[in-house]
Amino acid sequence: MKIGIIDICKQIEDPRMDRKKLHKMETIIYVSIAAVICGAQSWNEIEEFGHAKFDFFKSRIPDLEVIPSHDTFNRFFSIIKPSYFELIFRNWVKQVCQEIKGVVAIDGKLMRGPSKCNDKHTTGKEGEAPRLNKLGTGAWEKLKDRTKTKIKDIARDLIKLYSQRREEKGFQYSPDSFLQRELEASFIYEDTPDQSKATADVKADMESARPMDRLVCGDVGFGKTEVAIRAAFKAVADNKQVAVLVPTTVLAYQHFQTFKERLKGLPCRVEYLSRARTAAQTKAVVKGLAGGEVNILIGTHRILGKDVKFKDLGLLIIDEEQKFGVSVKEKLRQLKVNVDTLTLTATPIPRTLQFSLMGARDLSVIQTPPPNRYPIQTEVHTFGDEIITDAINFEMSRNGQVFFVNNRISNLSELKAMIERNIPDCRVCIGHGQMEPAELEKIILDFVNYDYDVLLATTIIESGIDIPNANTIIINQAQNFGLSDLHQMRGRVGRSNKKAFCYLLAPPLSSLTPEAKRRLQAIENFSDLGSGIHIAMQDLDIRGAGNMLGAEQSGFIADLGYETYQKILSEAVRELKTDEFADLYADELKGDGTISGEQFVDECQVESDLELLLPAAYVTGSSERMLLYRELDGLTLDKDVDAFRVRLEDRFGPIPPETEELLRIVPLRRLAARLGTEKVFLKGSRMTLFFVSNLDSPYYQSLAFGKIIAYMMKYTRRCDLREQNGKRSMVVKDVTTVEEAVSVLQEIVAMQVEE
Predict the structure, then answer these.
(1) For the chain, which has fewer Cβ within 10 Å, the N-terminal or C-terminal residue?
(2) DSSP string, 131-154
(3) Which of 103-117, 357-371, 395-409, 434-448 shows the lowest mean pLDDT across its residues?
(4) What is the DSSP string of 721-740?
(5) From-to residues of CATH 3.90.1150.50 in the chain
(6) Exposure string for 177-213, b = 16+ CB within 10 A, e = fewer
(7) Are residues 568 and 144 in contact, defined by beta-carbon separation less than 8 angstroms?
(8) Rounded distance, CA 573 to CA 557, Å?
C-alpha cells in the first residue's frame, strides 16, 4: 500500500485550537506543497493554484469542499513548528525511496542515491547517511556556493602551477628516427587501437615545446610498459636521459629485465637502483649516470637520493603512481618543472584521476584488451583447506603456477606446511620484504623459471610482476585490502591466453563491516577486462578527490554527490579561465584569431512552463521514468536523441507530443550553450536567454555575442535586450513551443557576422 503526504500528515499533531479548525491540516499542507513546487510564491498564489487545480485535489482528498483562503494558509504556517514540517517531508522521502529505488537527493533535474535506501542506507563518505536539506531554505544553494568557493581556491593554485609549466620551455624532441621505427616493429604483439593512440599522444607531446604531463591509465597487462619503453627510447635517441620510478624492488628488477630485453641491440645502456644492489654497484651506476654513460635508470625512490645526479634528464616515467606518497611527489615536482613526465597506472588514486578529469593533465586511457585475453574469474570464499587444494591442483594439472598472497609474515611457514601436507608433490617457495634482497631476487627468478609451483608471498608481488605462466591467485584475508590493491594483485594473473582465476578468502560476509563487504562485492562485480578505470571512479566517488595540491585525500564529494561535484568543479575552473586567468588562456579562447564564445558555457539550464514530460500513462513505472529522464539528461548529440527516440517507440509505442517536445530540449541546450547562454526560460510565450554572468568577460567581444546582436538588429520588434541586477539577457517574443525556440537559435547560429 502506498503512503502519501496526506497519510503522513495525519500522524502529526495539529497545532491549532479545535474551534478554529475549518480545514484539515493535511489539506492545507498538501495544497501548499503542490503549489510551491509548481512555482507559487505567496499565500494568494497558493490559494489561486488550489482553485485552478480543484478537481485534482478533490480526487486526492475526497471530503474536500472548498480550498482554504490565503489568510488560512498564512495563519497556519505562522504557528506550525518547522520540525513538524521537516518530519513530514523526511518520512515522505523515505517512503518514496522504498517505492523508487535509490532516490535520495534532488538537485534541479537530477535525483540520485544509493542502491539501498532504508534506515541504514549509506552513500556518503565512509558510509555516512546523506544529509537532506529542506526545500525553500536555500541551504542546498548555499552549500553549492560554499563548495564552489573552496574549489576555486584549490583550482586557482592548480592553474598557477599549470601555467608555470605551460610557460616553461621543455625540450622539443625530433621526429621518429629509423631506430625508433625498428624498435616498434620488433614488438612481438600487434598494437591495440588504444595502445597505438596512447603512443601517438605521447610522441606528439614529446615533439612539442611544452613539457609533457600525461597520465596513461590502462588496465593491468594492457601494454602500458610498451608505451613507456617507446617513449624512453625516443628520449635516448636525442641524447637525453630517462628516469623510471617504480614502487618496489621486485618491480625495479622486473622492469630492468623488460627494458633490457626490448632494447637489446640498440645503442642504449639500461641500469637499475634499489636496495638489492651492493654499495659498489650503486656507486658505479651513480658515476655512470653523472657522466652520461647510463641512458635509462630504473629504480625505487632511491633514485631521488641526493647523491643521484643526472647529466641531462629529459623524461621522467612514474609507474604505479598510486603507491607514492605526497612527500615523494613533492621531490618529483621540483625535479620535473621542465622535464617531460609520463605517469602509468591501472587504478589512479582519486586525486590523480581528478587532475586528469579537470584537464590539468592529459589523459590517455587504454581500454582495449589484447587479443585472446579472457576476463579473470573472481570468487569470494571462506578460508578452507579444500578450496585452496582444489585451486592449486587445477592450476598444476594444466602446468600453471599459483600466487598465494598472505600479508602476515609470521604464518607463511604454516601455510606452506598446510599446502605441502595436502599436495605432497607441490613445490612451494616463500617471498617477503624482510628477506635479503639477493635471496628474494633469486626466489622470484626461480619462480619465473618454473622451479616452483606456488609462490607464497606478501603484497610485494602486487605491482607489475609479469609471469604469464601464473594464472591463479589466492588472496587470504582479502577484506583487509583496498579496492586498488585487490585489483592490482588480481592483475598478476590472466596475462596470457589462458583462463585465469582469483580466489578472495575472507570470513563470512555477514561478519564483515559494510565497507569491507562493499569492497569485496565491487572487486567481484568489476571483473571484466579494462575495469581498472571503473574501480578508480568508484574510489573517487567514495573517498572524494581531496585537496589536489596538499596531503588530504577526502574532498567535498560526500556533501554533494559525485555528479554535482564534477559539475561545480568544471564551472569553477571555467569561471577562473574566463575571468582571473583570461590572459593566460587568451590563445585557447581565441582559437583561430576570433573568440567563438563556445568555451564560456559548459551546460545550459532550461526552465519552462510548457508541458514537457514522459506521461504516466505512457511510461507507467515511476522508477522507469526517473531512469529515462536521467538518460536523456546525459545526451548531447542529435544522433543519440534519435537512438533514444527509437528505443522509446520500441518499448512504449508512438511518442506523445509532450514527450517529443521534451526530446527537443537536448538540441536547445546545446545550441544555447554554443551561444554563451547560461539559462533559457520558456515562459508566457516568450524565450529569455541569460548570458554569461561576468559582465567583463571576453565573451562580450566574441563571435557568438556578435551573432546575438545581429539577430536582435534584424528582428528589433521581436527582441529586447535587457540588463537587470548585473545580468544581461535577451527576450524573444512569440515563442510558444520548444521547436520554435530551437529554430530561433539555429537562425542565430547561422547568422553571418563581420569579424
Answers:
(1) N
(2) PP--TTS-HHHHHHHHHHHHHHHH
(3) 103-117
(4) EEEETTEEEEEEES--SHHH
(5) 590-749
(6) eebbeebbeeeeeebbebbbebbebbbebbeeeebbb
(7) yes
(8) 17
Q: What percent of the chain stands above pLDDT 90?
A: 12
Rounded to whole angstroms, the maximal C-alpha distance in the chain is 101
**Where is pLDDT greater, at 457 or 220?**
457
**Global pTM value:** 0.51
**Contacts with 372 (C-beta within 8 Å, 6 or more apart), sequence order:** 497
Within 10 angstroms of residue 467's Cβ, the number of other Cβ atoms is 19
Tell whether domain 377-528 is in CATH 3.40.50.300. Answer: yes
The CA-based dihedral angle spanning residues 349, 309, 169, 215, taken in that order and rounded to the nearest 10 degrees: -20
Strand 470-476 to strand 501-505: parallel, antiparallel, or no bridges (unpaired)? parallel
User: What kind and span of H or E run contains 371?
Assistant: none
In the chain, CATH 3.40.50.300 covers 178-366, 377-528
Which tops the pLDDT comparison, 482 or 607? Answer: 607
**What would the grid cell of residue 480 be?**
583487509
Name the residue among 503, 492, 295, 483 with its Cα closest to residue 390.
503
End-to-end C-alpha distance for the chain, whole angstroms: 65
Q: Scanning the structure block, which residue is given the C-alpha cell 578460508? A: 383
* 518/512 Cα distance (integer angstroms): 10
On whether the CB atoms of residues 373 and 204 are closer than 8 A, the answer is no
Residue the block writes with cell 546582436:
709
CATH superfamily of 178-366: P-loop containing nucleotide triphosphate hydrolases (3.40.50.300)
* Closest listed residue to residue 363, CA positions, set 190, 229, 533: 533
Distance (Å, whole) CA 516 – CA 423: 32
Helices in 336-373 by DSSP H: which ranges?
350-357
H or E stretch at 393: helix 385-397
Residue 119's pLDDT band (cuts 50, 70, 90): very low
What would the CATH number be for the domain defined by 590-749?
3.90.1150.50
For Cα atoms 589, 595, 597, give the angle at the middle one, nearest 5 degrees.
85
